């Protein structure tokens, strides 16, 4: 009932928005085009409105059969930037985006830097430095600089207060939402896809291919793809959706922060799955927010950015896996054994005798066992945001372990388990990779048991690979 109601509400919003478009679109584009019409202009402005609405409808529903230009490049990456006290990251962001793109990539992408400050002398500072650092990229239009004009914005005083945010914060977030709308408007029709990031992120070599592959792999039923799990960073939209987004952002900039509106865009468009690219493609580096005195923490961002895709290609025959470790959130051990998801195991050690027990549905002739544990963390992200490589550290890996096997399955009530175990590998320290298992076991293995010793607290397992004879 609840979901029916919210669906209905979503529809009312959609229909409402469509109807309002006739009025609003012009209000919105008057924010963008800024002119207030005199009485004599009415006829031509009405024509303009009708044309804009027709274009929007053509994009959204192809009602008029209007032929729209096909964008020339694959991606346009929108990067709004404003002054922040205590450190600017925009040049690091641009360096990362430029140096991580091959010359072929550069022909498929445009980077649009939007100078979003109302302080014009700050525009000049940033513009000059970009010209100095990236003359070639500017001249061949790999980088474009665009600036906002304060006079096109609605008044940002006396805004509605909500979410318990201070007046300063409400103004900051309302402006951020409008900045995004202007940026999207500017980027309209430049590329097939628009990617929104912020001015304090880094990426890695091959990001263009990674994004392109992810778009291809995501099918067609998405409206937002996520290349980062942080707020408004790394969100991919279709070029054809930009007019709707501009409407949404300019309609609700007082009520909602931009990342919430992105999230609501998913529900309004009835996108039911979340599409997150793991490893993520962009990593947040800004410790200082553009909101005065606000600092931000890294959270799980670096975990997802440095996480490798599953690579072991084990046979992983059907099995149930048990463990006595505590499980963090939903990161159950099956997630590490299942090759088809990009998830992992993350848990904390029990007081003693920690183990993972794999019980095969059918006895297996196991040849090799590999378990990839630990992850790369960016430990000093907030202390030293611009020297990434110096901060990387491996965390939560299994330090000391032993592997046993059993070929004696016993039934206990409704469940089955293994009882008598033999050593496959005595306690050792180091990566978990056990070869020649067939020779040591003579086949017909019912269970494998990994025992953990001398673990401090947390254990992260990216992937389990069990190899068997076919
Ligand atoms: C839009 O309509 C025109 C004319 O009816 C048609 O040729 C074209 O294929 C349509 N485009 C899309 C994307 O449906
Ligand atoms: C505007 O920017 C300039 C140069 O970046 C700076 O010196 C000045 O203090 C800023 N003005 C305001 C009002 O923030
Ligand atoms: C994605 O699909 C398009 C169209 O089929 C293709 O041209 C492009 O090479 C694909 N990109 C990748 C990275 O596979
Ligand atoms: C930011 O912090 C400084 C030092 O604590 C304080 O003087 C200043 O008023 C704060 N600014 C805002 C806008 O809260
Ligand atoms: C493994 O389990 C899946 C799902 O339960 C099943 O579809 C599949 O046939 C099983 N494979 C084998 C080899 O038993
Ligand atoms: C294991 O190997 C034995 C003989 O080498 C064979 O009979 C058996 O079918 C194999 N089992 C599986 C699950 O492959
Ligand atoms: C980054 O950190 C490494 C290791 O701490 C240090 O050797 C290097 O000089 C630093 N680089 C910069 C640019 O600060
Ligand atoms: C300060 C500044 O760079 N202003 C420019 C912003 O962009 C408009 C055109 O969109 C120019 O006319 C301004 O000079």
UniProtKB/TrEMBL annotation:
Keyword Signal assigned: no
Highest taxon, organism lineage: Eukaryota
Sequence ranges assigned to domain MGAT4 A/B/C C-terminal in this UniProt record: 319-463
UniProtKB keywords: Glycosyltransferase, Membrane, Transferase, Transmembrane, Transmembrane helix
Segments passing through the bilayer: 7-27
Example GO molecular function: acetylglucosaminyltransferase activity
Record-linked InterPro entries: Glyco_transf_54 (IPR006759), MGAT4 (IPR057279), MGAT4_A/B/C_C (IPR056576)
Metabolic or biological pathway, per its Swiss-Prot or TrEMBL entry: Protein modification; protein glycosylation
Record domain MGAT4 conserved region: where: 70-294
Protein's UniProt name: Uncharacterized protein
Organism of origin: Sinanodonta woodiana (Chinese pond mussel)
